[in-house]
Amino acid sequence: MTNLTMPSYFSISLANTRVKYTLFVLAYLIAAGLYWPSFSGLPVWDDMSYLFFDPVMTDKFPYSDIWKNFTWPLSVSLQKALISVAKNNFTVFHAINFLVHAFNSWLVYRLLRLLRMSQFFSYAGFLFFLIHPASVIAVAWMIQFKTLICFSFAMGSLILFIRARSKKDYVLSVILFLMSVLSKSSSLPLPLVLVFLSGRSWKSRKTLWIIPYLLVSIGGYYRLTNSQVAEEAIKHATEVTTQVAQAPETFRPVPDEPLVTPEKDFTPDKDPYEKAKKRESPVEPTLSNEDASKFLAQTRLVIKTMYYYFWQAFIPVENAPVKGLNPFPPSFQDYLHLIFLVLIVIITWKMGLFFAIVGAHIFLLPYLGIIPAPYMNVTWVSDQHLYLALPSFAILLFGLMEKVKKTWQIPVLSLMLIFFAWKTHEASKFYQNNFTFYEASIEANFNNIPLVYNLSMLYILNGREDEAARLMNSVIEAGQDEPYIRENRFYPFILDLRSRLRKK
Questions:
Q1: How far apart are CA 436 and CA 165, in angstroms?
Q2: What gap in Å lies between CA 206 and CA 161, rounded to an integer?
Q3: Is 21 helix (H, G, I), strand (E, B) or coil?
Q4: Is the separation of the CB atoms in 467 and 501 below 8 Å?
Q5: Exposed, middle or buried, 272 (CB in 10 Å: 0-12/13-18/19+)?
Q6: Distance between CA 379 and CA 326 in Å, rounded?
Q7: CA atoms of 237 and 251, how far apart (whole Å)
Q8: Residue 493: which of 457, 463, 441, 439 has the closest Cα?
């Protein structure tokens, strides 16, 4: 059976001596130190709704119902089994997440070696992935266990596909891909990556093995889109993406983005909301403009998200857990990035790195704003979506760095890793509890109305009414000058909560 045509741009073959295990151990110890502040972290946000307070996780809910009705039954079942053993020992959950991430980093190293990258840059890619700040949300947030194992199975499937020497290897690779899709839908685009990796080997029988992956992917997409829970969540996401300014009659949070409330439902006072809507204020160029069609709004969102995810992979400055909504049209730098991307494509095409830039964007395809998703109710981007794309970005980065003079390689790489380590240690502190989680997110994006509501409620429930009042007042005052804040579908609940707080 013909082997997969491999890229030929890396100079050092697999015959070289392996990287010493002590270097991996040292890297793992450093990474554990960077993540240490999160190891004692309490449940945050979705951890409570979908792990520790979820009836599905109790002994009374059968596993058979999970596999029958849930879109991601494997990850849910594993989390349920973990809870039955670890109970409320949260350190165990954090430790397991870190260990899976450590294993995933080693898989990245193996992938880069299989693609004939030099040992030096393969190890650099391992470090790049291990301590990348964008990975913190997937590692430090307990609920993101599903993202981690989705990556593990997908990467295992990809590695087996590349090195396959028999039908058994292909069958096992397909099984691993199926397990990945049953853990989370993030790996659904993998078959497209396999197509680009196959390169010129279209006549090879090996290419025919992509068909089973396509069937698994189609089946996973069908199950996802025909889920009642997913349909409701996507419906809400579509409303937010197009910025339909409607105040809901009753507060019913979408399934994937629950808010903390003292009651199951309550009806906000409509009068303050109507008054706020009629308040005269400067018109800002936001996506809620009437002249912004649905197509235009989605196009703008795609341009912005492409810019964010690309540069967050290499210069991860923004590390707040939740980014908030972004109703503004693309800026000059967003459009400039499109030109830059075209240049990168031309350069990588000549260097044989084209598959890396394409592979990264294939994995990001579900998160670019083309397809409305539940997370769009609260945040327009989320760093865990970069998790599966980071290996491709690592291939791109270090493939280009090989062309740089050797005297610059180590200094540049060292500065990058030091910066990553600093930002990872900083971001891991955000996951200590709900207060640090929400405060970090709101500090980065004060217009994140759902999180402002959640944090205000937490302040009130913990006897910190003054802080709750100051937070809500600051957002309401900002809303007087910013129409997009008042148009947020959750804004009336801020008004209602402040009104109730004043009556106490």
A1: 50
A2: 9
A3: helix
A4: no
A5: middle
A6: 8
A7: 15
A8: 457
Q: Per the structure block, which two tokens stand in for 170?
A: 């292909």
Q: What is the dihedral of CA 358, 374, 316, 432, to 10 degrees?
A: -140
Amino acid code (one letter) for 259: L
How far, in Å, are 422, 450, 485, 486 from residue 479 at the CA level?
35, 14, 5, 6
Question: What are φ and ψ of residue 61, in 5° steps?
Answer: -95, 115
- Residue 326, both tokens: 């972004």
For the record, the structure tokens of 466 come out as 């003054």
Structural contact between residues 299 and 306, judged by C-beta atoms closer than 8 angstroms = no
Q: Residues near 358 by Cβ (< 8 Å), separated by ≥ 6?
A: 196
Rg of the chain over Cα atoms, rounded to whole angstroms, equals 23
**Angle in degrees, CA 71, 73, 76, rounded to 5:** 115
Structure tokens at 405: 């003079």
CA distance linking residue 4 with residue 198, whole number of Å: 6
Within 10 Å of residue 72's Cβ, how many Cβ atoms? 22
Confidence class for position 233, pLDDT limits 50, 70, 90 = very low
φ/ψ region of 172 (left if φ > 0, alpha if ψ in -120 to 50, else beta) reads alpha
The confidence score (pLDDT) of residue 74 equals: 95
Residue 270 and residue 247 in contact, taking contact as beta carbons nearer than 8 Å: yes
Q: Are 256 and 474 in contact (CB under 8 A)?
A: no
Q: Could you report the per-residue pLDDT of 412-453, keeping only the tens digit for each?
A: 999 999 999 999 999 999 999 999 999 999 998 888 898 999
**208 contacts: CB under 8 Å, gap ≥ 6:** none
